[in-house]
Amino acid sequence: MRNLELLGHKTSKVTSSDIEGRSFITTDPESLTVYVAFEDTNGQIRVAATDLAPGDPSAFVEIGRSTSSGIVNFTFLADLQVACLCTFNGDIMLFSKERFEKGEEAMEIIGSVDSGIHALAWSPDQDLVVLITGEKKVLEMTQDFDTITEFELHVEDQGEGVQHSVGWGSKETQFHGTAGKEAAQQKVDTSKFGTSNDDDFKPRVSWRGDGTFFAVSDIDPARSARVIRMFNREGTLQNTSEPVDKLEQALDWRPSGNLIVSSQRLPHRHDIVFFERNGLRHGEFTLRESSDNQQKVLEVSWNADSTILAIWIESEQSGKLQKTVQLWTTKNYHWYMKQHIVLSEGRDVTGFAWDVENALLAHLFTSSGQYHRLLYTWEVFTSTSLDESNSGYVAVADGSQLLLTPFGYQNVPPPMYALKAVAESDVQYSTFGPDPAGLQVAVLTNQKIQLFELPVKGHGAAAPLGQLTLPKIDSSNQSYAGNFIRHLCWIAETRFVYCQYDEELQTDMICIADFTSDCDLTVTATPLDGNTGRIYFNTTTKDLIVESIDGSVYSVEFEDNQPLINKVAQLADFCPWIATARVGLTPEESEFAIVGLTDRSKLYVNEKLISSEATSFFLRGTWLVFSTTSHSARFLSLDSFTLETLKLSDEASDAYDETSRRLERGSKIVMATQHKPSLILQMPRGNLETICPRAFVLATIREDLKALNFRSAFIACRKNRIDLNILYDENPERFVQNIRTFIEQVSEVDYLNLFLSNLRNEDTLVTMYRRGGRTADQLTPAAGVEKKVNSICEAVRNVLVELGREHYIQSILSTYVRSSPPDIESAMALLSELRETNMSAAEEALKYTIFLCKADLLYNVALGMYNFPLVLMVAQQAQMDPKEYLPFLQELKNFEKYYQRYKIDDHLKRHEKAIKNLSLAGDQHFDELLRYMQAHDLYLIAIEEYAHKKQQKLAILNVYGDHLAFKNSFEEAGIIYTMAGNPAAALEAYRSAGCWRESFSIAKQLKYTDEELHGLAYDTIEYLKDKRRFQEAATVAKDYAKDVEEVVDCLLKGSLWKEAERISYTHDRSDLIETHVKPGLVEGYAQMEDDLDEMMAQFRKQTARLVELRTRKPEQNVDNPMANDESLDNIDMFSDTTSMYSQFTRYTNASSRVSSVSSTGSAKTRKTSKLRKKEERKRARGKKGTVFEEEYIVNSLKKLYEKASNLQNDFGNLIRALVPFDYVEEARAIQEKFKSFLKELEAEVPVIFVPLQLTISLYATLEEFEEAKNNPKVIEKPVMAKVDWELQIL
């Protein structure tokens, strides 16, 4: 679908004399010097070259002449930096520009072949040269013209690689249709094959692109016909071509190596024929000639990348014979004539050559002594309109035909097409008109511009609108009018813009061509400062820009019909493909931007580089789409960025990324339709593929939703497998407000069911269809998304009920089923109602419901509604086995109402409902209720149901109390026993719970004797002492045991020294001071001192170990997780093949690539719950030498800090109790000791509590390893309480 467009054109005058014979052109690929060799009218050979004239590198300067005649070959030898010229009479000459610049003779004759040189060709690496002498001998020589081999050209041998047929696929075995078997027996008499009348009877030589073979074409005297022979690099004959009648002299071996091209003149047509290396024919195509205007093939030539075949012909043009060049390409096995180079004023093309490096650069020499440099590019001819009415026509030039296909409506695979426009001569270029629909096309030929009107959808023919004759060449325009027209743009209804090269000014002329309804063309030319590389016109925005070859971009505006050319931008490099667009978040803020693609795959927007791997691009609405060398399509939304922020997303693409899509290898963009979300791609082999990228589809859906065109959006989602949640998520408020419109537009029940069944409590704009390549972390779900399904179902259901419940019964059922949680019971209730009025409709609706839900679930719901007719209907429609449900239903029918419901609820495991119905079944079932209550722990519900039945309630409470006592919930059991009026059981429960207040209250109610109270008191005191509740024990001893010594003993054990002293004096028991208080105080002092010493020793030991750990790391390497696995400690035998880890590597820091990759690669496989639990146990132990030791020590020290903080009050109370009893020295000593310990603790806080270094988990994932390294674990610093515990008098 691509056309060959003339991108750049330059000319230079080589000589003022006329040229009649063939001329030759060669180039120096390093310095880009162009050499031209030609014969003047005096028969002298003249050689000219560029880069010699001061100030004008493109001017030609003659560097040498020779009296020899008949140029056979002219090639630049890069190694020798000379141009080698060979003549027909056998002379071999070298022309050196370097010697010429030194003032020496440029020409040097290095040898001559006596019999003459009839053909010559250098190998692609220029190490070898092959000559065909006048004696029909093949001479192979080195670069220094030393002979390697010499042999006869015409021999009877067919070559070493001759094919031997065994009959498979031969003519005799093939089907010949109506011709019958006789056709298989017919033999072709090759002895009658002869030469073409157009043959020049000269041999030709051509090398394959890799230099391993060369082919020689010459007339074999023994056959009197032309034969092609293939030789290897050593000159050994490999194959001979099969006999071909009227084979002509043209010969060239395709650089890619698969085909050898020549020509064949047949009585009824003229073919370009192809041969394989084995000499067999391999297809052909026919030249576009008529019986009254036949074409004579002079030469054929492939370009450097084998994509274009140039055919140099002589044919009748404007009533006279003229030598021209046709450029052909192939796709899908069809050959297209893309260009026909016809010079103005009847001038001949006397020399043609492709550039050796730039495959799209051609060099031309004319009969008037003019050199032309033609730079081509591949271009898709389509309208630049961004309007939705654009039909999407793409035009393909093929000779005099313009093949057209409207991709907006149909995709016709090439070489077929929807319609064609036929021009009077070969098409050189085409451009679409300024109408938004793109239905007008202008066709440029060598003499005219023809205008056509196209049908809207491709149905019909292209209607001619008129034709414009190009201006005649006169004195006012002769410097440019005779040159090729380039970059034709139809910018207004009666105006064209194009450019032509001006030979005098050596620059391009911007030509404004106005025409009238009478087809009179008026041209105004304005010179451009520089050479034009591209002219682009945007039909929608009316932007007309001109890009020069240095990347400068100019805007062209018209004032009083005069063009005003102003520079608007400077691209980083010349871009053969450009377009204009608007970039901005809103239409008001949008800015003018130029999109450009270089031939080195760099895509720019203004000066900003967007991608370095782009191969083609297209603008669709506000989207920029381009293909890449990594075989993907990238999509950039121009209305989601400003010019400053415009860029591709750096995030890796996921399955839902709308900014990227994989493509077939080598795919390139043809176009994107404006009114459909379609992108047309062409594969390297030529076939087309239409895809609907998610970016375009979502953009179309969003536009439809914005216009409240819900049906179109729904169909697009359904067709392109877009999640239907987007209909709501795109704008929830808009959808809810227009939900009736949605239902009226999408009125089909199946469509509504599909929509409802796809609903999820999820914001798809965050999880799936994120704009601009953003990640889910960068987006926030919409408010209320957790209730989304329920709200939509309810709103849809309300509208459907209004519009007709019976018609939309399936959709209404869907709203119940899709609710979260599913409201199956309401759906079944609706079915039950419908069953009463329309049985058949109810059955159909039930079938649909069974499709949505499991039949067993519907059966259980219907059974739970106690609706037996509905149960039977579900069972029948679900085709359940009657043996499974009928006996159970018959059994239920025999029970009375509430007991029946109890059985149903129990069957459905609805235990709460079951016990409620059982309570309503009568008191005769109370014992069964108690058993059921105990079996299913339904005590509270039973209490609630029997709240007004005292006898049953008390029985339930007693059973509940026993249950709580069995579960060791003694306090709650005591409360329940109290409610049940069972004080003895309540007292026992409270006593077991340690609730002494309640126990003694009930004991008083039970009128316990003093002896019983004393026994209860001492039991309670022992219990409280075990629980270290000493103050409460002292209270019980005082109030109920009346034992002062026991009270003092309890207070002393609780370190309540002052209170013990007070009680002793209060009860006139001063003797207890000596017998209990002082000894208890001394014992408490000794215990606290021991505790303090133990804390200090622990602190100093652990801090020292912590310093050791942090200054000298343990031997195990954290990067080697297996080093911490204790399970390896006892392994004393490993397999000889164990290479990933060894016992040696466990204890060394040496790392290897294999082991590190293995450890990280297998980290995920070790992440199991069992191993993690095992690791937590190790972490808690904090075994010495493991990575967990540091964390264990720090946590242990933190607990020690907290313990010391809590002991401040205890030390303060002890000191204040010691001093009054004259233990002043002991109080002072322990105060100073504890004070210094606290200071030591405070000083070490900044040292101890720093980020941990050794806590990487053995079973951590790679992500957790990285997280641990980047964000080390920190244990929070302890906070010491500010307590005034010291005694100042000490």
From TrEMBL:
InterPro entries per record: A-sol_ELP1 (IPR056167), Beta-prop_ELP1_1st (IPR056164), Beta-prop_ELP1_2nd (IPR056165), Elp1 (IPR006849), HB_ELP1 (IPR056169), TPR_ELP1 (IPR056166), WD40/YVTN_repeat-like_dom_sf (IPR015943)
Domain of life: Eukaryota
Recorded GO MF terms: tRNA binding
Keywords, in A-Z order: Coiled coil, Cytoplasm, Nucleus, tRNA processing
Domain ELP1 alpha-solenoid stretches: 694-892
GO biological process, one term: tRNA wobble base 5-methoxycarbonylmethyl-2-thiouridinylation
Region span, Disordered: 1155-1182
Chain ranges of the ELP1 TPR domain: 899-1062
Ranges of residues in domain ELP1 N-terminal second beta-propeller: 396-670
Coiled coil among keywords: yes
Function text: Component of the elongator complex which is required for multiple tRNA modifications, including mcm5U (5-methoxycarbonylmethyl uridine), mcm5s2U (5-methoxycarbonylmethyl-2-thiouridine), and ncm5U (5-carbamoylmethyl uridine). The elongator complex catalyzes formation of carboxymethyluridine in the wobble base at position 34 in tRNAs.
Pfam families registered for this protein in UniProt: A-sol_ELP1 (PF23925), Beta-prop_ELP1_1st (PF04762), Beta-prop_ELP1_2nd (PF23797), HB_ELP1 (PF23936), TPR_ELP1 (PF23878)
Residues of the ELP1 first N-terminal beta-propeller domain: 1-356
Family: Belongs to the ELP1/IKA1 family.
Domain ELP1 three-helical bundle: 1071-1248
Name recorded for this polypeptide: Elongator complex protein 1
Pathway listed: tRNA modification; 5-methoxycarbonylmethyl-2-thiouridine-tRNA biosynthesis
GO cellular component: cytosol; elongator holoenzyme complex; nucleus
Organism of this sequence: Thamnidium elegans
Compartment annotation: Cytoplasm; Nucleus
Coiled coil region boundaries: 1085-1112
